Amino acid sequence: MKTPTKPLRPYLEETTRLRVRYQEVDLMRIVWHGHYVAYFEDARRAFGRRYGIDYPVFRTQDVAVPVVNLWLDYKLPARFNDELKVKARLYKTDAAKLEFAYEIHCGRKLLVTGGSVQVFTRPDGELLLTSPPFLEELYRQWEGLWIRP
After folding, report:
1. Is 16 left (phi over 0), alpha (psi -120 to 50) or beta?
2. pLDDT tens per residue, range 10-47
3. How many Å is the Cα radius of gyration of the chain?
4. Rounded Cα gap, residues 84 and 33, in angstroms
5. E-strand spans in the chain?
6. In sequence order, which residues have a C-beta less than 8 Å from that of residue 103 and are 6 or more positions away?
7. How many CB atoms lie within 10 A of CB 104?
8. Which CATH architecture has domain 11-141?
C-alpha cells in the first residue's frame, strides 16, 4: 500500500509531538533515517492509546500484530531540537489487518510520509484470516468517529 495523497477510505487519526534529541542526529545534526520508523511507532502507540488498540490490548486478546510492510518517503530532513508533529492515520478495511499512513511535519513543512501494514497472528505465529472479535467490536464503537473522504 503506497501512502495515498488523498484518503480513499474512512479513517481515524491521532497526532503526537516530539522533539528531536541529540542522540538521534548524525554529525550534520540531521536525524538519522532509521529514527523516522521510531517516530511512526510513537504516533501509532498514541493512536492505540486513544482508540483502545495499543499493544497491551493485543496481549490481553492473545494476538500478535507484526508489521509486514513498511515504507517511508523522505522529503526534507529533521534536525536537532526540531519539534515534530507526527500523524498516524488508520484506514478502515474489511481485511484482517491494520493499515496506517503517517506524516511527519516540522512547522508547516512536510518532512516524511509513509505507511505500514500489520496483520493479526496467534502467539505461535499462525496467521488469522479474519479480524479478531475485539477489533470488530471496536469498529462498531468507532462507527460515528470515522472521517469520511
Report:
1. beta
2. 999 999 999 999 999 999 999 999 999 999 999 999 99
3. 16
4. 15
5. 11-19, 67-74, 83-91, 97-106, 109-119
6. 86, 87, 89, 110, 112, 113
7. 26
8. Roll (3.10)
